[in-house]
Amino acid sequence: MFKHLPKYTAGIAAAALLALSGVATTAMADPVKLRISTPAVESDWHAKMLTVFKDELEKKAPGQFDVEIHLNASLFKQGTEPAAMQRGNLDMAMISAQDIAKQVPAWSVFTAGYLIRDPDHQRKVFHSDIGKEFYQMVADDMNIEILDVGYLGTRELDIRGDKKIETPADLAGVKLRMPGSDAWLFLGNALGANATPLAFGEVYTGLQTGTIDAQDNPLPTVKAAKFYEVTNQIVLTHHLVDAIFLSMAKSTYDELSEDQQKLVHEAAEVATKYNNEHRIADEAKLLDFFKEQGLKVYEPDVAAFRKKVQQDYLESDFAKDWPEGIVERVNAIK
Questions:
Q1: What is the pLDDT of residue 40?
Q2: What backbone phi and psi angles, to 5 degrees, belong to 239?
Q3: Which among 58, 209, 276, 329 has most CB atoms closer than 10 A?
């Protein structure tokens, strides 16, 4: 096509065509596929948060990422996501401090009751040097990159019967359902109750029949699972400000360019803020909802609960794995 051009000019034209061809090839490169697995249902803010993450990436980097969101544990069962990311079978998931603590014992500090005060404190802690240190532990020991922290909810007590609960002593003999792991059962006992392991799917019937007397969960879960139909009171102990960590397999993360890594962190921050704002607003509205359903809703002597729970943890085997001074450092963040 360049035969009628002078030799020198034809060479420049050919080089230009090759350069353009390279640009076109780069532009048409396959997008980075990111498969996300979550047990969340479509109506959950955590599920909607993932769509925000996807949309934010597409807005900032059109065509660079292909984000697949798999809800309802349809891709991997709840709790198996960390291992799937470590094996290279999954790109992204939302994991808990309890999940992490199974492999990184120092993380059990964030499963302890009354350490994180509220959602704002949670975000400040994990956006501080403390967060950087603990995220690095996960990267080093689990080969997982944490992108950002999201608010899962503040766990409260949901109880059958009319006995008023003011202090931990009032929970003596109360069969409090907890998830069946050592960390969860320890928390239930530290609150003063008789912690009883029971699968989540059996909680409604357990409360209905009296197999258990109480359960603990964030208020949106209490509503979604309709536990309020078989209980009489919500006791606002605020004993655990729970978190989820939007995470990526390090094998996937390390293959991204520096610009792409920056983009996924920024998208994660937008997504977690979206989740937090909506979940906090929902929790505030739910207090009136439960009162309308006929439940008593009140706050006990939270200071008495905090004192007992923190003391129990500090004297436990869990605390032996905590970095020296970590409780004081977390408490110092305002």
A1: 85
A2: -80, -20
A3: 276
Contact 207, 228 (CB under 8 A): no
**CA 113 – CA 59 distance, rounded (Å):** 39
Which backbone phi and psi does 248 adopt, to 5 degrees?
-135, 140
Cα–Cα distance measured from residue 70 to residue 65, given in angstroms and rounded to the nearest whole number: 16
105 contacts 316 by C-beta, under 8 angstroms: no
- 6-20: pLDDT as tens digits: 544 445 544 444 444
Half-sphere exposure of 26 (CA within 13 A, CB side): 6
One-letter amino acid identity for 228? Y
| Cα-Cα end-to-end distance for the chain | 70
* Residue 138 and residue 100 in contact, taking contact as beta carbons nearer than 8 Å: yes
Residue pLDDT, tens place only, 138-184: 999 999 999 999 999 999 999 999 999 999 999 999 999 998 888 88
- pLDDT tens-digit series, residues 230-242: 999 999 999 999 9
Short-list 254, 268, 269, CA closest to 32:
254
pLDDT > 90 fraction of the chain, expressed in percent and rounded: 81
> What span, in angstroms and rounded, lies between the C-alpha atoms of 143 and 125?
22
- H helix count then E strand count, the chain: 13, 9
Query: Are the C-beta atoms of 204 and 227 separated by less than 8 Å?
Result: yes
Between CA 135 and CA 130 the distance in angstroms is: 8
Name 170's Cβ contacts closer than 8 Å, sequence gap at least 6. Answer: 163, 164, 192, 300
